[in-house]
């Protein structure tokens, strides 16, 4: 007698939830995500195949390995992970579980994934995010990003939420959770059809960066004038 897990044949790919840090390629042309635990060293695109994190030549999710994409069944379980200090700036992802998967009590381990939506929490200052900016760390070839408001972006490398969705491609939608109350917000950025809220957010980010550059120019100008007498 062979013991086997029951085979499932779902008519639609199962939905799962996870958290991940948004990343931007070093050359600024590609956007994706990097996981928060196992597999965090391997950034992935919106639609991507898992590979064995141990470099073994098998296809995830291999039965005797723990490689493959991971997600949980419940949105609340993924949101709970965002409470820890090291995960505060991660995004909440809603994914389609594609290809072979192994079902566990709390979630799936699987071969292929489509990220459908990504939701950014507030800026570190507490205000609602309008974009994603250099978080000050990364992976080789990839800059990690964190949610940022227009007031805090300053001169850092940054993208609007719609800009990130455009680079990530594959119809990804990027939304925000409002600052302060933590109540979900209806704002979202769709790469295909930016609406008024996305354009307003993009304009706010551009304006904030312009203000910062102008203030830097003004300071340099003052320093330049001050230096004339010394020569
Ligand atoms: Zn493996
Ligand atoms: Zn801020």
Number of helices: 3
Structural class: alpha+beta
Radius of gyration: 21 Å
Q: What is the residue-averaged pLDDT?
A: 87
**Beta strands, count:** 11
Helicity, in percent? 10-25%
The major pleated sheet works out as:
11 strands, mixed
Order of helices and strands: EEEEHEEEEEHEEH
Low-confidence stretches: 181-187
Quote the distance from N terminus to C terminus. Answer: 93 Å
* Amount of beta strand: 35-45%
* Number of structurally distinct domains: 1
Question: What can you tell me about this protein's structure?
Answer:
The chain has 3 helices and 11 strands. The protein is α+β, with helices and mostly antiparallel strands. Strand 10 and strand 11 form a beta hairpin. The protein starts with 14 loop residues before the first strand and ends with a helix. The chain binds zinc ion (ZN) (2 copies). One zinc ion (ZN) is lined by residues 123, 125, 127, 149, 151-152.
Topology:
Blueprint: E1 15-25, E2 31-35, E3 47-49, E4 69-72, H1 75-81, E5 91-103, E6 107-120, E7 131-139, E8 142-148, E9 158-160, H2 161-168, E10 173-177, E11 184-190, H3 196-228
Parallel strand pairs: 6-10
Antiparallel strand pairs: 1-2, 1-5, 1-8, 3-6, 4-6, 5-6, 7-8, 7-9, 10-11
Looking at this protein, list some descriptive labels:
11 strands; 21% helix; 231 residues; 35% strand; 3 helices; single chain; binds zinc ion; alpha+beta
Please outline what is shown here.
With 231 residues, the protein is an alpha+beta fold. The chain contains 3 helices and 11 strands. About 3% of the residues have low confidence.
